[in-house]
């Protein structure tokens, strides 16, 4: 009897097949449901474009990019925290003096009505700049916004320039010899030389912003000490919405909620005195780990302003039918893979011009744009947006790449397969180049951002193309913040320099330019966003020319030089996102510099019978 | 042979004799009876047939339908079944879907089989040691098992897989590291019963040590339970591979497995690329069902009462 019970117990313990079967069948059924047997999306609104009566109030929920979690509220961006979503939010709380915006023709200008200051006045052969702040602005605690608040920002970056992500040697703050406050609302900059006014406004004055000295610093306090204290607060992500420090703002919005997972909720700053007061009660920025998860929430009606992955572009008609409008958000940027030229092992490889040119010739940007990005990306042709490039200096040409590598002593195995190895070490003609040992493999590891099917597929296509030519590419995917935190400029002996060989953080564009797409931040020697540690005297010289001269040839020469030098490997530049916006959410202007202006957004309600359309 | 002398799952050897020292006629008789019971179970035969077919499909299929599963071919991307010589269409990167199903199946089956067997082997030894020695050793070993069981397996798998770059050996170890707990508990229960058998006592009286008792008497006599459990462990392991891959923790491309194929296909559900979803999904269901049917059949085959019938 006892034995029989034991046997039954054993039988019961091992008799669980239906659970597994159920699990696997459930997997398939769930897939089938996702595949189109699930509930259909209901129409969210039937207000047609151009119709509807504007209403005040309401909450708009906007999706953040895949795997992007806002993690920096301090309006002085630190290296590793320069993601566009961070600066976009910061600018809503602490707006800069000048905001780039497209004019009616689509050309970017610095003359936005929401500028905090009047147009800068250049004098003394463009060596002196005088800026007058508009008098109406006040901090959220009622204190006026003054020129001294701008000087506070300047003192902070001057004393801590190495910790400022926007620092480029010999540019801000080095190029300002004197910052003089003329009165409560006017300050004057004495520059170290004359500059191109258009460039200086677009690429230097755009950084200037007032910060609340009265709330953040005691009188006469050392800027280094203040900055250190502010940085300590800036690293306490979980306290962004409760720390009193971040409560004093001057922009149209203030933070209501900011979670460590990246959920940000903004409400209007009631004391905002600018011309663009918010219409909505609240704007919610919602994070997503992947584009697919965002898409599912969008389909379920959980977003007012989201995006669709390029892979489902064919669904755009479906969204239009259900009360959304589709609006690709084109960015003023470039996209690339950054080689770490200071990596102890692969740095010598990537410092070879012929290697970079060969690898560039192995990237079929046209095919990737067409098939992987489904037409929502376009080839990057050089260091400036493609609209400004004249030609593709290194189009896809695998044969040329193979012969270039072979001509420099790289050989595959006896059978013509396997990874290329250096067979001719040395620095002369037909040799592999300096620092490359005999037998060294042409192999790289790519640290790429996760969360996007298109990015993963782009990298797979590149890996495949490299593989055909004998170049091994191992891909490691990590969340965007991890990639941005790892792919930082470094010196060869620094531990971080060994952590990455090739980096990619461009699912929504690697670099978005200010109005003037100069390269002082990207490719100038020692620049903060020169992640790959590119250093070339000719590049520095050409960048300087774009800063000093308003001659069009300066930008053209710079672009042409770097397109041929390939300091980074150019890859297709995707639209920032293919936006899907509720048709009753209006006022959404998608700025190519990726700034946000939710204060312009408003909802419309269905017009009364015979009523007129939207009139805002 | 009395009912008291019989083991729960296998015929009892004579007292004082190790299980593998049975007479020459005993083992063939047992095997024949086991096979006969198994052969009477239609679902078990179906499972075996399905498994054989899937193994042939994955490992012999590429010989009949050779494809390049390493290099992408963007010009052939997302073709529907039947187009341009691709019976099951192509993926978003231009891989032939039928070939990828074979290629992915190899990974799923290899990792699933290896992880399932490793978990069963380790769990068996662990449980046998705990059950045989009892006392504080049993208490410590089984509290470790209980504590590990309290942590959700999928959570553990995701954490571990995120910390290391997945590869076949890594996946096998990671999955086996959470899957051994169930067989450990099961075999420990068997060992508690087996250790009081006369032949174990006899072996100890003759000077046999604990190691001999565990490896020559306890484990061999629990082999039926082990085998049945192993089939379910393999099915579980294949599902774990699918779960992990579905969550993006698969072996990096161009390697593939059915879970990662399913995960990639989900991206295209909205545009109707059904051929990227249903084949790998169906393959997972079939292989799990096959192992379950086989496990059911083996359980019945090892059941003494059914053999006597």
Quick structural overview:
Chain A is of the alpha+beta class and 616 residues long. Chain B has helices at 26-40, 42-59, 61-64, 97-133, 135-150, 153-163, 168-179, 181-194, 198-205, 210-221, 223-246, 258-266, 278-302, 304-308.
- Give the uncertain stretches of chain B in residue-range form: 1-26
Overall mean confidence score, pLDDT of chain A:
89
**What is the number of helical segments of chain B per DSSP (H or I, 4+ residues)?**
14
Note poorly predicted spans of chain A. Answer: 1-17, 35-41, 611-616
N- and C-termini, Cα separation of chain A: 86 Å
How can the largest sheet of chain B be summarized? none
The number of distinct structural domains of chain A comes to: 3
CATH top level of the largest domain in chain A? Alpha Beta
Greatest interface (CB-CB under 8 A), with counts per chain: A-B, 53 and 58 residues
- The best one-word shape of chain A is globular
How can the largest sheet of chain A be summarized?
5 strands, mixed
- What's the overall geometry of chain B? elongated
Q: Which fold name fills CATH's third level, the topology of the largest domain in chain A?
A: Dipeptide-binding Protein, domain 3
The Cα radius of gyration of chain B reads 23 Å
Number of helices of chain A: 17
Task: Report mean pLDDT of chain B, rounded to a whole number.
Answer: 84
Proportion of residues in helical segments of chain B: 55-70%
- How many structural units, i.e. domains of chain B? 1
Largest sheet of chain A, order of strands side by side?
20-19-21-15-23
Record field, number of beta strands of chain B: 0
């Amino acid at each position: 009897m006892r034995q029989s019970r034991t046997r039954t117990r054993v039988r019961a313990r091992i008799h669980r097949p239906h659970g597994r079967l159920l699990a696997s069948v459930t997997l398939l059924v769930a897939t089938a449901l996702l595949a189109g047997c699930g509930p259909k999306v209901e129409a969210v609104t039937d207000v047609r474009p151009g119709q509807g009566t504007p209403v005040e109030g309401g909450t708009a929920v906007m999706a953040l990019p895949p795997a992007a979690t806002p993690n920096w509220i301090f309006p002085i961006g630190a290296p590793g925290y320069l993601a566009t979503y961070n600066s976009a939010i910061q600018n809503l709380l602490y707006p800069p003096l000048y905001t780039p915006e497209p004019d009616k023709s689509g050309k970017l200008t610095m003359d936005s009505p929401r500028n905090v200051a009047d147009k800068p006045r250049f004098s003394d052969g463009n060596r002196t700049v005088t800026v007058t702040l508009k008098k109406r602005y006040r901090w959220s605690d009622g204190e006026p916004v003054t020129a001294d608040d701008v000087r506070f920002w300047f003192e902070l970056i001057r004393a801590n320039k190495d910790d400022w992500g926007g620092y480029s040697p010999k540019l801000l703050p080095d190029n300002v010899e004197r910052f003089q406050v003329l009165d409560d609302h006017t300050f004057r900059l004495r520059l170290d030389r004359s500059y191109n006014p258009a460039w200086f406004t677009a690429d230097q004055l755009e950084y200037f912003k007032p910060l609340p000295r009265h709330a953040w610093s005691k009188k006469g306090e050392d800027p280094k000490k203040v900055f250190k204290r502010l940085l300590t607060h800036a690293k306490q992500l979980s306290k962004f919405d409760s720390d009193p420090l971040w409560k004093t703002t001057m922009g149209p919005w203030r933070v209501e909620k900011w979670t460590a997972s990246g959920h940000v909720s903004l409400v209007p700053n009631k004391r905002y005195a600018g011309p663009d007061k918010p219409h909505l009660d609240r704007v919610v920025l919602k994070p997503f780990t992947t584009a697919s998860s965002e898409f599912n929430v969008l389909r379920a009606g959980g977003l007012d302003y989201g995006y669709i992955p390029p892979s489902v572009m064919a669904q755009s008609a479906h969204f239009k039918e259900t009360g959304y409008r589709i609006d690709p958000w084109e960015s003023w940027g470039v996209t690339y893979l950054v080689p770490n030229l200071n990596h102890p092992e692969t740095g010598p490889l990537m410092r070879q011009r012929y290697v970079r040119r060969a690898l560039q010739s192995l990237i079929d940007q046209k095919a990737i744009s067409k098939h992987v990005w489904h037409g929502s990306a376009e080839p990057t042709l050089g260091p400036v947006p493609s609209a400004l490039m004249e030609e593709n200096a290194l189009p896809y040409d695998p044969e040329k790449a193979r012969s270039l590598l072979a001509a420099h002593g790289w050989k595959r195995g006896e059978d013509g397969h396997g990874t290329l190895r250096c067979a001719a070490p040395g620095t002369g003609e037909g040799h592999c180049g300096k620092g490359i040992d005999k037998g060294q493999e042409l192999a790289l590891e790519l640290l790429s951002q996760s969360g996007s099917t298109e990015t993963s597929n782009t990298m797979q296509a590149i890996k495949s193309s490299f593989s055909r030519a004998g170049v091994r590419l191992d891909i490691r995917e990590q969340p965007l913040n991890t990639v941005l935190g790892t792919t930082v400029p470094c010196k060869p002996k620094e531990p971080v320099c060994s952590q990455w060989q090739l980096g990619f953080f461009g699912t929504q564009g690697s670099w978005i330019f200010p109005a003037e797409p100069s390269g002082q931040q990207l490719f100038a020697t020692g620049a903060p966003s020169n992640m790959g540690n590119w250093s070339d005297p000719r590049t520095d010289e050409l960048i300087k020319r774009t800063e000093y001269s308003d001659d069009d040839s300066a930008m053209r020469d710079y672009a042409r030089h770097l397109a041929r030098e390939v300091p980074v490997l150019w890859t297709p530049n995707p639209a920032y996102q293919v936006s899907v916006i509720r048709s009753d959410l209006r006022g959404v202007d998608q700025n190519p510099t990726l700034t946000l202006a939710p204060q312009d957004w408003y909802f419309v309600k269905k017009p009364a019978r015979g009523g007129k359309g939207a009139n805002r | 042979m009395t009912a008291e002398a019989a083991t729960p799952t296998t015929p009892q050897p004579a007292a004082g004799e190790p299980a593998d020292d049975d007479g020459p006629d005993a083992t063939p008789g047992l095997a024949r009876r086991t096979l006969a019971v198994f052969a009477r179970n239609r679902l078990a035969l179906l499972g075996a047939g399905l498994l054989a077919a899937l193994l042939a499909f994955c490992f012999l299929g590429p010989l009949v339908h050779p494809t390049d599963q390493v290099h992408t071919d963007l010009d052939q991307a997302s073709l529907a079944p039947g187009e341009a010589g691709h019976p099951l269409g192509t993926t978003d990167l231009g891989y032939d879907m039928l070939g990828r199903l074979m290629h992915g199946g190899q990974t799923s089956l290899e990792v699933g089989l290896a992880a399932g067997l490793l978990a069963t082997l380790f769990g068996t030894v662990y449980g046998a040691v705990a059950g045989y020695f009892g006392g504080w050793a049993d208490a410590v070993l089984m509290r470790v098992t209980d504590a590990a069981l309290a942590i959700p397996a999928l959570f553990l798998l995701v954490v571990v897989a995120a910390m290391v770059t997945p590869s076949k050996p890594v996946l096998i170890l990671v999955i086996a590291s959470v899957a051994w707990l169930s067989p450990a508990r099961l075999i420990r229960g068997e060992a508690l019963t087996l250790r009081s058998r006369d032949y174990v006592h006899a072996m100890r009286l003759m000077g046999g040590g604990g190691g001999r008792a565990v490896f020559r008497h306890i484990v061999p006599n629990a082999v039926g339970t082990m085998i049945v459990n192993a089939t379910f462990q393999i099915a579980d392991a294949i599902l774990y591979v699918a779960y992990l891959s579905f969550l993006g923790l698969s072996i990096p491309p161009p390697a593939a497995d059915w879970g990662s194929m399913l995960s990639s296909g989900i991206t295209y559900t909205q545009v109707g690329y059904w051929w990227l979803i249903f084949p790998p999904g169906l393959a997972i269901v079939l292989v799990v069902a096959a192992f379950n049917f086989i496990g059911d059949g083996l359980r019945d085959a090892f059941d003494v009462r059914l053999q006597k019938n």
